[in-house]
């Protein structure tokens, strides 16, 4: 399993690295708040929608959820679909909030 810390993701954002930052929580969780710059593809629909939203299977993707469990499962699922550069952010939004990193509220992707 490929995982990274919230500090790793924040450093990538700070360096303006190109990657897709994806929140896999439920719609209402995403609307309540989410990591700044993250798009939303809920775990329940990611297998259905990812090929439309992110068609290039080699581009880097970082997934996160509430605490790190759903994003690991989602990462495994999309790897099985042929996505080759997928990482789950350990600790999820809880760790992101605890680190004081930027949060956005109520924005649709």
From TrEMBL:
Residues 15-105 form the Rhodanese domain. It comes from the Bacteria. Its EC number is 2.8.1.1. The keyword Transferase applies. Gene3D superfamilies: Rhodanese-like domain. PROSITE patterns: RHODANESE_3 (PS50206). The keyword Transferase applies. Pfam families: Rhodanese. GO terms for molecular function: thiosulfate-cyanide sulfurtransferase activity. InterPro entries: GlpE_sulfurtransferase (IPR050229), Rhodanese-like_dom (IPR001763), Rhodanese-like_dom_sf (IPR036873). Keywords: Transferase. This is Putative Thiosulfate sulfurtransferase glpE. It comes from Nitrospira defluvii. The lineage of its organism: Bacteria, Pseudomonadati, Nitrospirota, Nitrospiria, Nitrospirales.
